[in-house]
Amino acid sequence: MTSEYIIKTQNVSKKFKKTYAVKDLSLSVRRNTVYGLLGPNGAGKSTLLKMITGIIRPTSGEIQFCGRPWKRKDLSVIGSLIESPPLYENLTAFENLKVRAVLMGIGKNRCYEVLQKMDLADAENKKTSEFSLGMKQRLGIALALLNDPQLLILDEPTNGLDPFGIEELRKMIRTFTESGISVIVSSHILSEVQQVADDIGIIYNGSLLYEDKIDANEDLEQLFMDIIRKERAS
Fold this sequence. Notes:
The chain is of the alpha/beta class. The model has no long low-confidence stretch (mean pLDDT 92). The radius of gyration is 18 Å and the shape is globular. The strands form 2 sheets. The protein has a 6-stranded mixed β-sheet, sandwiched between helices. Strands 1, 2, 3, 5 and 6 form a 5-stranded antiparallel β-sheet that branches. The protein has 7 helices and 11 strands. α3 (108-117) packs across α4 (133-145). It has helices at 45-52, 93-104, 108-117, 133-145, 163-178, 190-196, 220-233; strands spanning 5-16, 19-25, 28-30, 34-38, 60-65, 68-69, 78-81, 151-155, 182-187, 199-204, 207-213. Keywords: ATP-binding, Nucleotide-binding, Transport. Belongs to the ABC transporter superfamily. GO terms for molecular function: ATP binding. InterPro entries: AAA+_ATPase, ABC_Gallidermin_ATP-bd, ABC_transporter-like_ATP-bd, ABC_transporter-like_CS, P-loop_NTPase.
């Protein structure tokens, strides 16, 4: 039986020396949805995503992928863009993709496919040192899509983008779920998440304070502020 959830964390914690970056956090990401992970800077969003992508290991707790314990081999069907895109600026867009594709045993045709998908086909032979920030972000997502992932993780993907770049990225994210990709988007920009996400989780001081489907009629900013204020006052 296929699990309804692509990712679940159960009481996951990450401790650095004596400080918890994430503590006893349990969230559930449904298949073929966009999950908006909300929280102020330093809330623990990136730490959580780094655990899901195997960059760092949890101190305790369990991560489940497709209804079973997460294994490193699951990274073959997980794509991610965490922090800045990992680009070789002296290489072209296509060459950046080809380097990754060779390492993963993926044919070069897939490089052309993801360039097309991210609207970068006209820039395939352009060095990435000449790219705008928005183009670099799109190429970073193209790299994350190379392995045709079941789960795509985007950490603050709109950072530094202008309003047009943000709108383009929002439209692209919606197309991912239509092609069977589940997406986790972390952000502190509430209005952007409200326009793209199906479900949200609100994280603060390493704890998940709220998780539910998005209500189109609800004021997400007010909900967010109420939850954070209540936690600060407790």
